Amino acid sequence: MIQIRKRELSKVQFIEEEVLDTPQAIKLRQKAIKASVISQAGETNKRRIAFKTLENGVLSVNSEVISFSGNYILLKGGKNIPIKSIISVG
After folding, report:
1. What domain range includes position 36?
2. Are 90 and 23 in contact, with CB atoms under 8 Å apart?
3. Pairing between strand 57-68 and 2-3?
4. pTM of the model
5. Per residue in 8-61, pLDDT tens?
């Protein structure tokens, strides 16, 4: 797995299909995403997010997760990652 800088995310082509193969794995990913969101008290919590791309396989980035919607997580600094492309959050 190659680690990239957050600013490099704008150059990444994320895979559009679901990368996890079981409903349980998807549920665990969702739980990890929820746990990684920065609390209202301003507690910082950097996480390593591993995700699959079209051109470079699996990459990772270290960042704070600000929020998430049904389809994307929002990282500190305004970068988005599609949830379906995320392999792990830890």
Report:
1. 2-89
2. no
3. parallel
4. 0.92
5. 999 999 999 999 999 999 999 999 999 888 665 566 678 999 999 999 999 999
